[in-house]
Design a protein that fits this description.
The structure holds two protein chains of two kinds. Chain A is α/β, with parallel strands linked by helices. Chain A is built from four helices and ten strands; from the N terminus they run ββββαββαβαβαββ. Chain B is of the alpha/beta class. Chain B is globular. The chains are: A alpha/beta, B alpha/beta.
Chain lengths: 147, 425
């Protein structure tokens, strides 16, 4: 078990199974097909992401360096939250990027009753340590426990 | 974040609850980047990324309706990304059914919302809003609240405007309050290069391939590119701007680049030179072999890798008027060389409605039509954004389209040969 301390972008507390992308997470490419065609597991559709392509994302602790790609990224994430098809939380090794931050903030301000805690600045060690299937607990103060 | 009295009053609800939520969104967004303040938007027009009435995006339309119902709209008019549908573009019965009865059922409703929110005009649908024909071209130093990754990177890099890689919805919210958080690419420090890219190719590198290589390497960092001016010159003429448009779109979609500098060419590089390069900047050398390695590593998503292409898209991002003319010349010449009269693969060249209108007034339009090529204002990405197209072997010279769909990337020359009956793609 290891603990990592990050910065809270949007607060919340949750425990979920880890899904790890060691490369930039392309939000549009990952979500577009699954949201559009009602994939209940919300499997990742990004063909360039060899880590998580085809893996279910809903309810997972999505661990990633940052998001990349189209500037629809934030609104796609907002829609995923509003439709209750988002990951349980998003945990960034790096500083959060502008698209993911937009999605997290839009969901926090405009979606009632849905919580997707977002923590960033967890460091490279976090991403090196966490593996698919590990149990991840996010605390209100930005502490992330991986076991 | 320190707010002015006026900004604080909005946040406190002086202009209503919905406006307060818009301001709260921008403040939280800025806080995520330790922004110290909000700064005024100075561009004449805004640009939005969300142009498509996808049924599944109903949370977006609900939010827009909240804004309209509360009378919370911007004083700034805007352009928006391309429409997703065009009857000119080949589609079979099943595709048309899926497009019109399942996917884009909210298109008319959403376009009505866009008009009420401040759309410039009926032709303002393009990812290349900065084309002269479209008329949304910010000046150097203008502060923007734009989204659309290819437009943002062009505005920052080629026009010298200042804009972060804003997401859809954030784009219109900044415009509504008239301010954006001051961080990242709005600041001098955020515009300094943390990578030096040395182009050492033996011929002019393909714009979309070079951009892809750089995007995948530097991700969201700012690259300073040395050696490209020997291939595209030191003047921002039509050809150089078109090259940089395509190059930038690939850096932004294959990575997350929001600004690049080209030595001796782009405005800040000309003005400040290597002073733009941050201490400890990393280095990436690109030669012919590196470009080939990048292209060879693109995954092939077709069910049958040897399938004959059924459709070809050129123009993601949308083509300029000069590019349409050049493609016309090149297609005619290649058809003649290959002993063909018309293209052998259905081919669609896409451009902004206003650019197509200007093209239609030239004699090139009839010449292009005679080759069998179709022109359209469509967004190829939105067209291909469904499982039916996933099974369809589509070729493209767009690295952005390749990234988001199952289409297969080829260089311009390879595309030209494939569509005119030369060497098979």
């Amino acid at each position: 078990m290891r603990e990592f301390k990050g910065r809270v972008v949007t607060p919340g507390q949750v425990t979920a199974e880890a899904l790890v992308s060691t490369q930039g997470f392309n939000t549009l490419a990952s979500f577009q097909m699954a949201l559009q065609f009602g994939d209940k597991q919300v499997k990742c559709g990004d063909q360039n992401n060899t880590d998580i392509h085809g893996k279910p994302m809903i309810g997972k602790a999505l661990c990633l360096p940052q998001t990349i790609g189209s500037t629809t990224g934030g609104l796609v994430l907002y829609c995923a939250c509003a439709m209750e098809k988002s990951p349980a939380c998003m945990l960034f090794a790096n500083h959060i990027d502008s698209l993911a931050a937009a999605g997290a903030v839009l969901a926090d301000v405009w979606v009632e009753g849905v919580s997707m805690p977002v923590v960033d600045c967890l460091g490279d060690e976090f991403l090196a340590y966490v593996k698919d299937g590990m149990t991840v607990t996010v605390k209100e103060d930005g502490v992330v426990v991986v076991e | 974040m320190i707010l002015t009295k006026e900004q604080q009053a909005i946040l406190d609800g002086e202009k209503g609850e919905t406006m307060a939520k818009v301001m709260k969104t921008l403040v939280m967004y800025g806080d995520a980047f330790e922004a110290e303040k909000l700064v005024p938007i100075t561009s004449k027009y805004n640009h939005l990324v969300t142009s498509f009435g996808l049924k599944v995006m109903s949370p977006v339309y609900d939010l827009m309706q909240q804004l309209l119902d509360a009378g919370v709209v911007s004083d700034q008019k805007f352009s928006v990304d391309p429409r997703p549908l065009d009857k000119n573009v080949p589609a079979n019965v099943l595709q048309n059914f899926v497009f019109n009865k399942f996917m884009y059922t909210k298109q008319d409703f959403y376009e009505e919302q866009l008009h009420k929110l401040g759309l410039m005009d009926d032709k303002a649908f393009s990812c290349t809003c900065y084309m002269d024909e479209v008329g949304n071209k910010p000046g150097k130093g203008d502060v923007l609240s734009w989204a659309e990754s290819s437009a943002v990177v062009y505005a920052n890099s080629v026009l010298g405007a200042r804009c972060n890689r804003n997401s859809g919805i954030i784009d219109i919210m900044g415009s509504i309050v008239g301010y954006v958080p001051y961080f990242g690419l709005l600041t001098d420090e955020g515009r300094r290069a943390t990578w030096v890219i040395k182009v050492q190719t033996t011929k002019k590198p393909e714009a979309q391939l070079l951009g892809s290589a750089i995007g995948m390497k530097v991700m969201e960092d700012v690259p300073y590119v040395v050696g490209l001016d020997q291939w595209i010159g030191t003047e921002l003429d039509d050809a150089a701007c078109a090259y940089l448009k395509d190059f930038g779109a690939a850096t932004a979609s294959n990575g997350a680049v929001g600004l690049y500098h080209i030595a001796n060419l782009t405005p800040e590089a000309v003005e400040l030179g290597e002073a733009l390069i941050a201490e400890g900047a990393k280095e990436y050398i690109i030669d012919d072999a590196e470009l080939q390695r990048v292209q060879d590593n693109y995954p092939v998503m077709w069910k049958n890798a040897d399938a004959t292409p059924k459709l070809c898209f050129v123009g993601c991002p949308h083509l300029s008027l000069e590019q349409l003319k050049t493609w016309t010349d090149n297609i005619e010449a290649a058809l003649a060389a290959n002993g063909q009269k018309k293209v052998v693969i259905p081919t669609v060249l896409t451009a902004a409605p206003a650019v197509l209108e200007a093209f239609g007034k030239t004699d090139y339009a009839a010449r292009l039509k005679a080759t069998g090529v179709i022109t359209s204002y469509i967004c190829p990405l939105m067209y291909m954004n469904n499982p039916l197209c996933k099974k369809m072997p589509v070729i493209t010279s767009s690295n952005k389209l390749r990234t988001y769909t199952s289409s297969r990337y080829y260089r311009d020359e390879e595309i030209l040969q494939a569509i005119t009956g030369g060497k098979k793609a």
